Every structure is written in C-alpha cells, then in structure tokens.
From TrEMBL:
It is a multi-pass membrane protein. It holds the Pfam family UNC-50. Keywords: Membrane, Transmembrane, Transmembrane helix. The lineage of its organism: Eukaryota, Metazoa, Ecdysozoa, Arthropoda, Hexapoda. InterPro entries: UNC-50. This is UNC-50 family protein. The keyword Transmembrane helix applies. Signal peptide: none annotated. It is found in: Membrane. The keyword Kinase does not apply. It comes from Cloeon dipterum. It comes from the Eukaryota.
Amino acid sequence: MFARSDSQESLPLPIFCRMDCTSAAAKRYKYLRRILRFEQMDFEFAFWQMIYLFVSPQKVYRNFHYRKQTKAQFARDDPAFLVLLALWLLISSIGFAVVLRLGVLGFLKFFLYVVLVDCIGVGLVVATALWYVTNRWMLKPACRDQDVEWGYAFDVHLNAFFPVLFILHVVLLLFYHVFIAQPWFVSLFFGNTLYLLAVGYYIYITFLGYNCLPILQGTKALLYPLTGLIFFYVCSLALTMNVSTAVMNFYHYRVL
C-alpha cells in the first residue's frame, strides 16, 4: 500500500514559490475541518508512520516529499496522525494516573497539561523557533523565494514527540515502580538512559525533518544540542541524580 516505485523516487522535486499554492489559512481550515471526520482519515497510514519513526524515520520524511509533489505542500493534510497521538496521550495519562495514584480530577488535570503544555505548547515554541531560524539563516541563496512551511515545522515536532511519548510514557512507566524508582545505581542508570534516548531521538528526528528539505543548508547545526545532552547525562550519573524520579515528582505536584 505504501510502496513507491523507483521511477517515483527518482523524480526531481518541483520548486514551489510562496504564491503558487492555496493560502496557509485555507490549508489550516481544511485540516481542522477534517479533524472530526474520521471516515476521511487514513489511520492505517498514520500508524505506519508511527512505526517507521522508530524503524526508519527517513522513510517517513520521504513521504513528505511525495506530498509536496502531489499536493504542493510538505505539511500533513490528514489529521489522522494527530488523532492517534492524542489517543496515545490519553492511554499513557491513564497509566500515569494509576502509577501516581491520581484521582479523577488529578487525571483530567494531568491529561490536559500533557496535551496543552507538553505536546502543543512546547510544539508551538519549538516549531516557531525552528521555522524562524531555518527561514532566516538556513535557506540556500537560490531558494530565497521559498520558505519552510510553519505547518511542516509543527509536523516535525509531532514526529519527534511520538518516540519521546512512547519511551517515557510507556516503557519507563512499565519499569518505574519495580525497578527505576529503587535506590540502586543500575536503576538510576537505566532511567537516565531512557531520558537520554528519548531526548536524543527527538533531536535526531527533528534534524532529519529539516535535513530532507532541498531548500535548506547547514542543517547539521540542529544536532549540536546532542553535545549538551550527553554532558548533562554524564553529570546526572556522576551526581547520582535520578532524572526519572525528579520528573515523576514534578508530574505529581503540578496537578495538585
């Protein structure tokens, strides 16, 4: 269903300028209008994307190129991925409510906080910052009449957020009480390593999202935060700081 022929992959990417497509406002309206029409969403393809964000994220971004060729935009026009992500957030929030022993009100506050702040709020900040940086300093001189779509920048955030959600809200949750929360160095090492993998994955998938755009240059700079991440990871082990426990305490008290 999702396979592409070699001839399709070898087609050169067309060049689109800002004014040759439907306006950004019209695209957003079309996207939001479909968000409650489940019969129009391709959930199978969205699930495929989630799997390949772990297995081979390059294939996910290759599909964004196909969308640019056929629909003149890199950003998703199908909200199925966002709907599935919201479902994952709901399920993981129920798990957190059980682990943190939250009541119904606490669960609702936690779920809204995760969706509105951790996912959407952080996404708005990161997507807007990278949208500005890439359009301001990373456009190739020959591509100044083009730009990175803000909707695509937000899609890159959602792509990078899903592995973080799975690692920290599913895998970590399963091991938290029985292993990670124990006062052993191996528990601290395992929990902090999960955070290293999750944040590292976020940085790497974000880099892939912008590196695949033919109008950008110098995107390797987006990998620089990995250096700071590794430094923090080493320091956390040296100082025996259990990041997982600290974050769990933060999660618990922010919904009180």
